[in-house]
Amino acid sequence: MNAILGLHRQLSRYDANLSDWGGSMLSLVLRFYVGSQFFKAGLLKVSDWGATLALFNDEYKVPLLPPDLAAYLGAGGELLLPVLLFAGLMMRPAALALLAVNILAVLSYPQLFGFECPAALNDHFYWGVLLVVLAVFGPGRFSIDSILARQKP
């Protein structure tokens, strides 16, 4: 009986270690996938700033913020927050902040709800779910947050 329990303990340790590494790898992939979507959107915004300002003034209806300020904050968030995700630095706050950017993007562009093809709205939904998963489960081993947590004070 002790031999069976010992084998079970060894396999459990191996399984927990494998799950930790697998979860860390999955987190890394999710961080880069979601982050790249927002980073590309930020690059697009700054590549034609005049068009971006026009969109925020004419199309997007960001609540409580003046359109120009919303454009600066939106582009800045889409460029800075993904870098934090990529590095795994302050990853949970960055994921939650990107979730807020994602929600504001959907709320600010009500035409998304009227399109015949719901692909754009679905993309925002999937990105939101992935950001919640990242915020809940954390960055994993392959992150600056993990390195800092392992250092002794």
Automatic annotation (TrEMBL):
Endpoints of the signal sequence: none
Key words of the record: Cell membrane, Membrane, Transmembrane, Transmembrane helix
Localization per Swiss-Prot or TrEMBL: Cell membrane
Entry annotated with the keyword RNA-binding: no
Transmembrane segments: 69-87, 94-113, 125-144
Domain of life: Bacteria
Main location, first listed in the record: membrane
Topological type in the membrane: Multi-pass membrane protein
GO cellular component, one term: plasma membrane
Pfam families from the UniProt entry: DoxX
Family to which the UniProt record says this protein belongs: Belongs to the DoxX family.
Protein name as it appears in the record: Putative oxidoreductase
Organismal lineage: Bacteria, Pseudomonadati, Pseudomonadota, Betaproteobacteria, Burkholderiales
